[in-house]
Amino acid sequence: MKIKELYHQLVPKPRIALTWMRALPLIFFLLFYAALCISLELSGVLLFARPWAFGLILFSIWIWWLSVAGYGGLSKGRALAALVSRLLMLGLFVMLIAEPRSVRVRDVISVVYAVDLSDSIGESSVDSALEFVTKTVTEKPQTDEAGLVVFGRNSAVELPPRVSFPFEALNSRIDRDATNLQQTLSLAAAMLPEENRGRIVLISDGTETEGSISQILDELKSRGVAVDVLPIQYEYDKEVWLENLELPRFVKLGENYEAAVVLSSLKDGTGKLVLRENGEPIYEEDVTFKAGKNRFVVPIYLRSAGYYEYSATIETKRDEDQIRENNTVINYLFVEGEGKVLVVTDPAGDDRDWEPLVKAIREGERNVETISAYEFPGDSLSLMPYDAILFVNVPADAFNVIQLKAVHDSIFNQGIGFMMVGGENSYGPGGYHRTVIEDALPVTMDITKKKVLPKGALAIILHTCEFPEGNTWGKRITKQAIKVLGAQDEVGVLVYDYMNGEKWLFELMPAGDYEKMVPKINGAQIGDMPSFVNTMELGLEGLIKSDAATKHMIIISDGDPQPPSPKLIGRFIKNKVSVSMVAVFPHGGRDISTMRGIASATGGRYYFPSDPNQLPSIFIKESKTLKRSMIQNETITPEVGMISSVLKGIEAIPPLHGYVLTTIKPRAEGVLNAPEKKEAEGDIDPVLAFWRYGLGTTAAFTSDLSPNWGADWVNWDHYSAFIKQLMIKISRVQKQAHLKMWSHTNGNNATIMVEDFHPEESFLNVAARISGPHDKKETVVLKQVSPRRYQASVPLWGKGRYQVMAIGKSGDREDHANGGFIVPYSPEFLRFRSNPIVLEEIAEKTGGQRLNPDKAAEVIYGRRAPKQSSNPIFDWFLIALAILVPLDVGIRRVQLDWYVIKSWFGFGSEQKASTVTMGALLQRKQGVVEELDLRKGKTSGAAKQTTSQSTISQLQAQKQKSTRPNSKAENTQKKKTDKTTNPPGTKTATDSGDNATTTGRLLDLKRRRQSEDEK
């Protein structure tokens, strides 16, 4: 029963007769709706992602039934309008569910050229590939777009697809020691606009050392992206290379050993084999080798403990060996001995900065070795002989990034101690902010709470430099310069963009927002600006608005933009804004004199580096001009913070005459602090602090230990004792090692072996952490392969030095072993022929072609097919639906008086007498009431009862009379006749007719009540 009742509620029975004529609105709507949707789809204006949703239009039959069944209570016209509005709403709703999308057709081809720059590709082949790109781009149609991607181990976008192609030189930095075609094609496809027909032109030798190309081909095919290929052909029939340099695993001083060199060749030949120890030749011999593998043994002799690096090189005739990069292999030996302290000094510094310190360390019975920053080794393995490393007032720009990374890794992985001794070239003023050295120190160079530190502002202008990777160098040194600044300092970068001209890449903002700046710098498109004027004006306006105490501008350029006017230079001088100019490969003498003149006039400096590698140190040096305020040239007496063994036996601490502001890190041990300042209440400046970093201990002494700030300390009785206890605190503790580790490489894999020499044999859980090139780290678990021996194999990820730290655990026992290995050259140099088969497979699976250089442009841009793309337009349909909802409600709920509406516009004035309803009725009511009052005084009570009709009756009679054709006089005369001829109490014909209706009965009831009131 309930189901039946529900059915009747949803589909009620009709109250009126239904005919086929009433179904015409539904039939016309369905036909129109179907024709509209089909025409939109076929014409290409719209497409619907879910066409099955159109089946919901069948609900229009139910809507039509409710309308024509007579349950709306509306007039015929309003019912039809309501039905149409409901059907339109349903049609729009169904279209929304079908997901409409607007269709756009464009006859534009976007091409991304992918050029292989890996080591297996010679420089001449790269130049030919770039010439091919330039030639084909100049022949493309003007509306088509072209972009450039370069790749090796990684990929980089040189130019995104655009109509113009402003290529000057390669600026992207990539790792060339491998080839990753999968990543390259994925990046190139991501650069193609969806609305255009996309195509990739791959220029490569087809060798793939990383990734899997098969994983990307199906995706390219599904997207309709064809890959045209231009093979780089080469084949070497004569090649000689060194595979390995084998050294003894365990050695003792004073004994003879042998080193074995493994040589391979494609053909028989001769050459000279040279073995070098720490760079010095110890063996030279002419050798004869056969095709295949050859092994040569060389005697070696170890005279003292330390780190020994051996390199073997085969020298052959040029016509017998075409790749020279694979002719050298490197390996090392480390012989443990008495630990030493390495003191690193500033090459441009004063000997008095470190001489008293070195003397005190020797008095503490430790071996000391002093080297300048330029002589500092570039790998952590060569630092193994040292127990501690000291930086004595040496700036960061005296090192390169590799050297600083070696220090960091030696502290963290090998447990070597480290201390930075202060001075004007240390800590923040020395450019160590946001470096790996700051990570290792117990203090940070961010001065977040110091109120006494004035703020600096730096504006950097980048002009494209026409040398290889010029823009990349500009971005790199910009980031390094910003790192030097304090968090509260302001920095902004200006560039010339090919599309938007001179602009701020980002306006002056706190250097503490470094992470926000990096993506903007990396994505900058740096163009060849025509003039210095606009960018210098923009930079000056920004610096003027800044409230910084020190304001500076750095410009890197080749010098060819138009120089600024003397008036603009005068504004720089007036606002005390200095400008330093860095000339990189300038075009001539006039350019040099212009840049030198700008720097001289504004109080800046002029640089003319001959090598781009000097640029980072220049920018760091310039940025340090804003950091000099961190140096506190005042006399203080350090106060003891935490009790430490370093102060054992020391009762009074002499004063210091200066120090560098730093902030101690959480969990660091602050042993000596500067007295607290009133203006920086609660903020303590550390003088001596320690903490544990990885396996090593690091220290920060923010003053110096020389006759400058530390003059009273150098003459202090406890100076040598303090230095001795300081070295004991930070130096690596030599422990008896029960684990021995060695490793070797074989192709693209390395084998790591660890042997346990503990007196008590037990099973160990051994794991090794490997740090290698590209800042990549990997952890592997070593499996036991025999009693006390554990082994693991790990894939290599490029040439360079790998450091390995093995840890063995068993219960409470934990042992460490350090070692490593060196991959001397890229595996790309072991490729002796190209692989065009891979390229042809790529072209075949994606619908591309193998290109002929002579007719390549016609093939690339000639195969045209308009690209159809679509965008969702859900919002527009939703807006239309929202408009129809109130319209539907209005049709059903609001009734309009069209006579009144016409009168607003002046229509229907001739029918005014007949259309006036309420006003005429009210006037007539007033007249009837007056007439009744008059008659009440002239007639008897009986007559009054008869003649006293209700107001409603009079109004009804008046209305009926007003609609008859009789004149007003005739109506009045007839009314009087009726009153005289019908005596009171009798019924008239009208009464008898009206009493049959509800209105008549109501009138009779009212007359009886009036009669009773009069009585």
Summarize the model shown.
The chain has 1015 residues and is an alpha/beta fold. Helices cover 33% and strands 27% of the residues. β4 and β5 (155-162) form a beta hairpin.
Model description:
By secondary structure, the chain is of the alpha/beta class. It is 33% helix and 27% strand. It is built from 29 helices and 40 strands. Strand 35 (765-771) and strand 36 form a beta hairpin. Helix 2 packs parallel to helix 4, helix 8 (355-363) crosses helix 18 and helix 11 (470-484) runs antiparallel to helix 12 (514-522). The model is unreliable at 910-915, 938-953 and 961-996 (pLDDT under 50). The chain crosses the membrane at residues 23-46, 52-72, 79-98.
Entry keywords:
single chain, 1015 residues, alpha/beta, Rossmann fold, Immunoglobulin-like, eight-stranded mixed beta sheet, 40 strands, 33% helix, 27% strand, Class_I_gatase-like
Write the layout of secondary structure elements.
Elements lengths: L1 H9 L13 H20 L2 E3 L10 H10 L7 H22 L2 E7 L2 E8 L6 H16 L6 E7 L3 E8 L18 H11 L5 E8 L9 H10 L2 E6 L8 E7 L9 E10 L3 E9 L2 E10 L2 E10 L4 E10 L12 E8 L4 E6 L9 H9 L3 E6 L13 E7 L8 H14 L2 E5 L14 H5 L2 E2 L11 E7 L7 H15 L5 E8 L3 E10 L3 H9 L10 H13 L4 E8 L8 H9 L2 E7 L5 H14 L3 E2 L7 H9 L7 E2 L6 E2 L18 E2 L2 E2 L4 E5 L12 E8 L2 E6 L9 H4 L4 H12 L8 E8 L2 E8 L8 E7 L5 E10 L2 E7 L4 E11 L2 E11 L12 H11 L9 H7 L4 E6 L1 H20 L4 H7 L7 H4 L2 H19 L4 H7 L3 H12 L5 H14 L7 H6 L3 H17 L1
Parallel strand pairs: 3-4, 3-6, 6-7, 15-16, 15-17, 17-18, 18-32, 20-21, 20-23, 23-24, 24-25
Antiparallel strand pairs: 1-2, 2-40, 4-5, 8-9, 9-12, 10-11, 10-13, 13-14, 19-29, 21-22, 26-28, 27-30, 30-31, 31-32, 33-34, 34-37, 35-36, 35-38, 36-37, 38-39
Helix pairs in contact: 2-4, 3-4, 4-21, 6-7, 8-18, 11-12, 11-16, 24-26, 25-29
